[in-house]
Design a protein that fits this description.
Two copies of one chain form a homodimer. By secondary structure, the first copy, chain A, is an all-alpha fold. Chain A contains eleven helices and no strands. The structure holds a DNA duplex (30 and 30 nucleotides).
Amino acid sequence: MSAEAATTGEAWEDVTPDAARRLVIAAVQAFAERGYHATTTRDIAGRAGMSPAALYIHYKTKEELLYQISRVGHQRSLAMLGEARDTAGSAADRLAAAVRAFVRWHAEHHTTGRVVQYELGALAPDHYTEIVGLRRQTEDAIRTIIADGVAAGEFDVPEVNGTTLAVLSLCIDVARWFNPAGRRTPDEVGALYADLVLRMVGAPREP
Amino acid sequence: MSAEAATTGEAWEDVTPDAARRLVIAAVQAFAERGYHATTTRDIAGRAGMSPAALYIHYKTKEELLYQISRVGHQRSLAMLGEARDTAGSAADRLAAAVRAFVRWHAEHHTTGRVVQYELGALAPDHYTEIVGLRRQTEDAIRTIIADGVAAGEFDVPEVNGTTLAVLSLCIDVARWFNPAGRRTPDEVGALYADLVLRMVGAPREP
DNA sequence: TGGGCGGGTGAGCAAGCGCTTAGCGACCCG
DNA sequence: CGGGTCGCTAAGCGCTTGCTCACCCGCCCA
């Protein structure tokens, strides 16, 4: 297994049996590289070291694989942001923590992130609807923190909704451009982005 | 032709003959809705009101259609940002103008923008290389303005390269989420984003 | 010992894909 | 009037796709 596969795998430890986990990891990598529609079931099975037919023992369809990936990924995002929203501390601290965690995750797991954030259009209609619901909840988590900051007089933003969208947009897009071979580590990008976001909301920062 | 087709069409006025233009417009809409790989040549031809074979009179392959769209779109982006970089005025003015124009374009032509920004992975290797070159130039334009601002003492940024990436990322992602049926007009999003970006670079703004 | 069962394979089917080819009508020019 | 050209179509070719099916192997417990 390549180093890339190892990092992709870390996020899927609890998928069993082993063959099913190998298939998710293979699917994440293939979907991230080529996109859902350009990926063949033969490619996924091949990466997992199995014959094409073996895929259908563990998953009903190719779309179900995408759905599992998308669902788990969105739930993790939501858990991360929800936690940041609900901890004690100033709005600035909570916003910085949320952005740091969210960005770090999208950098570290940029293959998974790419699939989660950019391939949801390939989901079946009912799955798509469910995922959109999760996305609205993650949006709400960020909006709540920003609104809290405004209410407390900590933040000064031109428009809460638009700023929320911009913050999320900024974080999500990390999955698209992040390159593990580049100069920046996930931690560094997280710190940089947390700083940029605090500037965006007009929060006073330590010098 | 729908209202959507009309706005998509505005960007392709100079493609001739008429049938070729109808094909690009149809391709932009189809690629934006479903993605390149999920779009069939039959779908494109159908939207343009022609038989599947007619497509190949005007374009050698389906990929060539994507290449034309991608090339023209990137050239327009580059022209826009290059102009903003080269006009007179403070760095803050130039950065705000660049962001405003770039965001406005990605909102107004969000279908084209979606294809230009998110489908380049489907390009043939040599076309991909060419487009990546154009993208580096657009990145350079933004970086130059930010570096100018830092040199002039107008801006205070944690890191020029990372901030450049973040600014571009923010603007590009507008094409993904912008919804013309939503509450915000392209002008409003442009103004909001220009403000947010000035905050990010620590530029003093009029109150 | 043996039979069921979970996990796997090789071969292949029906459908849909990108693209080609033979031919057709409208038009322009000598 | 006649022939070449341009834009287009109907039909279909060769191939790949997602997915299925008949069969197989190793393991566990009666």
